[in-house]
Automatic annotation (TrEMBL):
It catalyses: oxaloacetate + ATP = phosphoenolpyruvate + ADP + CO2. It is found in: Cytoplasm. This is phosphoenolpyruvate carboxykinase (ATP). Pathway: Carbohydrate biosynthesis; gluconeogenesis.
Length: 674
């Protein structure tokens, strides 16, 4: 739109001149006049625009969509049209064979017949020639089942726009919000189900993994895994169509993992499109065989008569087969965190530390890690308008520095405000998946305060939706390691500086008051200890990760901090959560180095070094005792929490951390003293 100088606005046409009705029309007020003219044949035409280049409605619709051009030049051909077509066909065939193999039942001879494309589209109905036969030719025998006669339609790495259409057309509860995000419902499960996460115990994993008390790895045998796998694969093959995502994990090119996600819902496919690293068209063409495959048959329950099944939900990990099966939960976070578990196994084998942490970097290249359990502020605090975002939840620390495992962020949305968290707010646009939120039925405006479906409302968006994302998502060695705890007791200071032994003590303890809803069944904040701030995802004994962290922090001179993003002025119920702007000031002071050189005093019981002043934060809140009106209640609560820490740490007292016994003793002494 342009002004003509008289305060009038006109629409410019392609040539930059004001559009008028037609050759001889004048449009003084900017509106085109409809004119009819007599043509030579005496017929009356409205020919103000050239006629459409289609003879039929079908043809018109076929013009709307342009065939995607082959995205990369095919290698090894001299360019003749015939050669290109052949390679293209060959490549597609290999891809379909790979998918068919992924979906193969292990009790039948071959994989299903797979074909690309939406079964709803007539033009894509398979011809017999696209039948992938593997080694065997299809010969009907008595043992053939109906499932062998049908095609499994594969919707392969669809774009967000295509996935929106699939979701809206076929998945109840899918809507476009006023900002363009896709609103979805995850069904009965609105959080992860840690008590239903099982890992196959075989000769290798029996020795390698952490089993028993405190471990997240509930054992299952290989046979039971196969029963569940078969159940998932049969379910997926019985559908009209399945979604397949081929993507990557880890921005460190040397340690990139190829993952395939087979799922039944467009919601799941879009979620993983956002959360994993998106391959370029060229990378996708050369994808080959995945390193790990997820079968998400979440709509379908597991069979409770199956050995080990204690509910209708089961999330099963088989490291030897490099597969994960999901039955009985549609909560998409299971896929993200399931893959994180896999990384917690694969990476330490390569001397790489995997971390449940956010990560960002300052203009000068100073990197900070943000550890913390769910809801403590990893996403909120790593998304900082003044710093580059490397990632919000899952990272690796190698010899060379840090790398994000994921390609997207997964932010909590409850009470989200554009004012307090503008970057996250603005990322919730077209392409973002909004889980379990409530919106106005007409305006489609989201009410972020509404907990009708769940407290654990979430947004999943590609990391580049955050304007200052650092792409590729890698950075140098961390300078600060910030341990976040959301202390519902209200007795931990808003910030403490930790020595290495204290950092290890708190890292192994992994304390927080779990914020409602992320784990299925938890409705109110409760004190929780979760080793390495992520016991639900670690595969090896916590001391393995702790030793690596100590090594790396020492080697690279990183400083540890404990930041309480939880309560102040009393426990949950009487006190209040520390204001986000105060926490941000504290984090700023850590980043800019000013807090390192502040004046400190030591607290009772926990022996934490707390600053007496932080710019922009009222000094009286820095020592929690000042904020409690009932000092006796404060002291009692402090001792109560310290007791919980002590009891929790008992399980670790028999373990040596790293090579040095001295460090082990120091860590044991770094806990509360009373
Ligand atoms: N002082 C505070 N510091 C940090 N977050 C706060 C504070 N006060 C309130 N919050 C809220 O707490 C929540 C922190 O959630 P966030 O998404 O950052 O968790 P997370 O650590 O990334 O968890 P998860 O691993 O489950 O993704 C946000 O909703 C944020 O608005
Ligand atoms: O996995 C989820 O559902 C959310 C998350 O990030 C966590 O719990 O740490
Ligand atoms: Ca998060
Ligand atoms: Mn997380």
């Amino acid at each position: 739109m342009a002004s003509n100088g008289n305060g009038e606005f006109t629409f410019a046409n392609g040539n930059g001149t004001a559009a008028v009705a037609n050759g001889n029309g004048t449009a003084r007020n900017g509106l085109a006049k409809i004119q009819t003219q007599k043509k030579g044949n005496g017929m009356c035409h409205d020919d103000s625009t050239p006629p459409v280049k289609a003879q039929t409605i079908d043809e018109l619709h076929s013009l709307q969509k342009k065939k995607s051009a082959p995205t990369t030049p095919i290698k090894g051909t001299q360019g003749g049209a015939f050669a290109i077509t052949l390679s293209e066909v060959e490549r597609q065939k290999q891809q379909l064979q790979s998918i068919s193999a992924s979906l193969a039942s292990l009790t039948r001879e071959t994989g299903p017949k797979v074909v690309r494309g939406d079964p709803a589209k007539q033009s894509e109905t398979p011809k017999v020639s696209s039948h992938v036969s593997h080694h065997h030719h299809f010969t009907p025998t008595i043992s053939v089942s109906d499932s062998a006669l049908k095609f499994t339609h594969v919707l392969y790495n669809l774009s967000p726009a295509e996935l929106y259409e699939q979701a809206i057309k076929y998945e109840k509860g899918s809507f476009i919000t006023s900002t363009g995000a896709l609103a979805t419902l995850s069904g009965a499960k609105t959080g992860r189900s840690p008590r239903d996460k099982r890992v196959v115990k075989d000769d290798t994993t029996e020795d390698e993994l952490w089993w028993g008390r405190g471990s997240p790895n509930i054992e299952m045998d290989e046979h039971t895994f196969m029963v569940n796998r078969e159940r998932a694969v049969d379910y997926l093959n019985s559908l009209d169509k399945v979604f397949v995502n081929d993507q990557f994990l880890n921005w460190d090119p040397e340690n990139r993992i190829k993952v395939r996600i087979v799922s039944a819902r467009a919601y799941h496919s879009l979620f993983m499109h956002n959360m994993c690293i998106r391959p370029t068209p060229e990378e996708l063409e050369n994808f080959g065989t995945p390193d790990f495959t997820i079968y998400n048959a979440g709509q379908f329950p597991c069979n409770r008569y199956t050995h080990y099944m204690t509910s209708s939900t089961s999330i099963d990990l088989n490291l030897a087969r490099r597969e994960m099966v999901i039955l009985g939960t549609m909560y998409a976070g299971e896929m993200k965190k399931g893959l994180f578990s896999v990384m917690h196994y694969l990476m330490p084998k390569r001397q790489i530390l995997s971390l449940h942490s956010g990560c960002n970097m300052g203009k000068d290249g100073d990197v900070a890690l943000f550890f913390g359990l769910s809801g403590t502020g990893k996403t909120t605090l790593s998304t900082d308008h003044n710093r580059y975002l490397i990632g919000d939840d899952e990272h690796c620390w190698t010899e060379n520095g840090v790398s994000n495992i994921e390609g997207g962020c997964y932010a909590k949305c409850i009470d989200l405000s554009g004012e307090k968290e503008p970057d996250i707010w603005n990322a919730i646009k077209f392409g973002a998946v909004l889980e379990n939120i409530v919106f106005d039925e007409h305006t489609r405006e989201v009410d972020y305060s509404d907990k009708s479906v769940t407290e654990n409302t979430r947004a999943a968006y590609p990391i580049e939706y955050i304007p200052n994302a650092k792409i590729p998502c890698v950075g140098p060695h961390p300078k600060n390691v910030i341990l976040l705890a959301c202390d519902a007791f209200g007795v931990l200071p808003p910030v403490s500086k930790l020595n290495l032994a204290q950092t290890m003590y708190h890292f192994i303890s992994g304390y927080t008051a779990l914020v409602a809803g992320t784990e299925d069944g938890i409705k109110e904040p409760t004190a929780t200890f979760s080793a390495c701030f992520g016991a639900a995802f670690i595969m090896l004994h916590p001391t393995k990760y702790a030793a690596m962290l100590a090594d790396k922090m020492l080697k690279h001179g990183a400083t540890g901090w404990l930041v309480n993003t939880g309560w102040s002025g009393g426990s949950y119920g009487s006190g209040k959560r520390i204001k986000l702007p105060y926490t941000r000031r504290i984090i700023d002071a850590i980043h800019d180095g000013s807090l390192l050189n502040a004046k400190y005093k030591k607290t009772e019981v926990f022996g934490l070094e707390i600053p007496t002043e932080v710019e922009g934060v009222p000094s009286e809140i820095l020592d929690p005792v000042n904020t409690w009106s009932d000092k006796d209640a404060h002291n009692e609560t402090l001792l109560k929490l310290a007791g919980l820490f002590k009891r929790n740490f008992e399980t670790f007292t028999n373990y040596k951390i790293g090579k040095d016994n001295k460090l082990t003793e120091e860590i044991l002494a770094a806990g509360p003293n009373f």
